[in-house]
Design brief:
The structure is a homodimer of 395-residue chains.
Chain A lengths: L6 H4 L5 H8 L6 E2 L12 H14 L1 H5 L8 H14 L10 E4 L2 H12 L5 E6 L3 H8 L4 E8 L2 E2 L1 H10 L3 E6 L13 H14 L2 E5 L24 E6 L11 E4 L2 H15 L4 H13 L2 H26 L6 E2 L7 E5 L6 H10 L2 E2 L1 E2 L13 E5 L5 H12 L5
Parallel strand pairs in A: 1-12, 3-4, 3-6, 6-7, 7-8
Antiparallel strand pairs in A: 2-9, 4-5, 8-9, 10-11, 11-14, 13-14
Helix pairs in contact in A: 3-11, 5-11, 6-7, 6-10, 8-9, 12-14
Chain lengths: 395, 395
Amino acid sequence: MEYNFSDKIQSVKPSAIKEILKASKKSEFISFVAANPAQEAFPIDEIERICQWVLTENPITALQYSVSEGTKHLNYAIKDYVTAREQNLIKDSDEILVVSGAQQGIDLSAKVLLNEGDYVLTEDPSYIGALNTFRLYNTKILGIPMQQDGVDLDIMENYLKTHKNIKIFYTVPNFQNPTGYTTSYEKRKAIYNLCQKYGIVIIEDNPYGELRFEGEHIPSIKSLDTDGLVIYVGSFSKIIAPGIRVGYVIANKNITQKIGVAKEFSDIHTNVLGQIICEKFLTTCNINLHIAKLQRLYKNKITAMENAIAKFDENNFLSYVKPQGGLFLWCKIPNHIDISEFCKECFNKSIAIVPGFAFQTDEKAECHHIRLNFSTPTNEEIQQGIEKMFKKIEL
Amino acid sequence: MEYNFSDKIQSVKPSAIKEILKASKKSEFISFVAANPAQEAFPIDEIERICQWVLTENPITALQYSVSEGTKHLNYAIKDYVTAREQNLIKDSDEILVVSGAQQGIDLSAKVLLNEGDYVLTEDPSYIGALNTFRLYNTKILGIPMQQDGVDLDIMENYLKTHKNIKIFYTVPNFQNPTGYTTSYEKRKAIYNLCQKYGIVIIEDNPYGELRFEGEHIPSIKSLDTDGLVIYVGSFSKIIAPGIRVGYVIANKNITQKIGVAKEFSDIHTNVLGQIICEKFLTTCNINLHIAKLQRLYKNKITAMENAIAKFDENNFLSYVKPQGGLFLWCKIPNHIDISEFCKECFNKSIAIVPGFAFQTDEKAECHHIRLNFSTPTNEEIQQGIEKMFKKIEL
């Protein structure tokens, strides 16, 4: 049979990262590609204890159907956890919706807001998973160049002035994927004001916010949200475990109500065991101590990467702005180097890296960056991988 | 802010069932509304043992990011399990894709196949979750009246002749929700031939297939699929546990490849702990013995319901065709009775039931049925609920 696939699915392809990940699975490879938490990052004992407890004491609750919006217990635990970090984010429990990972939060936000042909504004480069999610609604993406302190506001406003049907601005304000850049407080306020002026919903995706290992916390855009135009997407993937697929959305209850309906007809509800792991971890374990441990862990890893670069990159081939948190180092390579050739050369030396254009809204636009992940490899692998990268480079 | 929600989300509302479920949560209620497995149906000890094993022996695998298509181990386990039940369903592992419950299998199949304005053919009445999923792609649904042995083939062919852009025929051939009817082997062949002739993809949703407590197994439509036009959707919700949200899709690999891409940008992957529970239950426990236990359990429950109806429905107010499996009894009430009034009257007596029109493609069309679920209440609740239902009915 000749399949007549939908226009939307034909507009996206599997992510380049996934392809590189698959190709670099052999054991001799050192990979700077994934965005996985470090092996040491998982609170294994606590999760084991929670699972054992619930499957002994309350198994039916963990195994039976549950409600689309997430369990009440996890809802309350999220409210307390988020409020302890930022006081004014949540007024009411109705503003919280549990989702099957932050990716679903983005997807369902798009589903309830976007008609075909609408425009979405994003940082450029941006998280590839969000870009493709928006493409799957047959929408058009307008990329705003990313600067060290957030998007270029002039270009953002120009888009808002010249394009009708812009519905969403998508941003990762903390330690952005792929650049590691953090949007300054001034720009957060300016972004909020612009979106307020033009009636645009902001999706504030914050998977890495807790992983700040330097500098001071910057209030979220959601904390400025007097008008209810921000959908804040939080995740337990980086602070508890990604395999359990639990995240959450915080938004005006009119929005969470719609997202709840969309969720019911997407996957009915989020897996309950994962929800209980998050709830009990938040309420019976020391989440702040655990996050402090993660911050030390990733600070240690980025330091290992910086040291390796300082040692082996004798000609200052790579340049970068050191991020204050997160999982990525966004490195510029000299303009005269072909980025695909460079990545290929690394691949031939069993080093896997992602070319920056994989994150661009237009993959064919000029690109002189690579993204290096420092959370997944061990410190030894970081050292060896960077050393190999600079051995016998023929430029 | 005035939200400008998408057309698609405005076309659906939360399911009526969900509203009735919420309203009937008080302890005095006896509910025939849910489609939950019975409390006794869960293999709790096995699940506890599996979780303990994996979180002790292989925790990182269970907690780290995984692949969109599902773990290789679960893929192989599904292949063996399905093949043991029907030999010719799966040729290659590429034809299997793990999803976050059957609901997601339906949703992602719709996503990769449907453009806005396309038509979907369904049984009428049908599973409300599928109907709303299709509506969320801005498609139009054509309902084919459901008969005791499957859809009316003349009406089906007439639709196929007169409507362009019919892309999908959606069917639950075994113990359908809500009717409990099973499509005969003759009709399965006729349906396949019709869809083959008109180039329509069949979504064969089989959540209840294993729960046959009477009669003989009927080969799936997928087993007839020489041309690769059937997407078979299987579920572990009714045979292991729905809270873990694991199901699977079996289809031509060109389709599963597209669904895999759509899945990556919906929820990245299915929760891994749930996948490991299913894999290990299939490979290290006696799934056939467990299914035989479930068949006895639900046979016992439908018998309790039949006995209660025989005892308390002295005037033969309800009439039904006894299903050979599944979870539902689809009862006709006399034509002169207003169905909403009847459901309301039951509700006032703390009995929750779903009016049949909730499952119709046109909720406003004439309706003389109610759906009674017999899996969720205990045998005592079944007896008491049916007794109450017929007490002091003022007709």
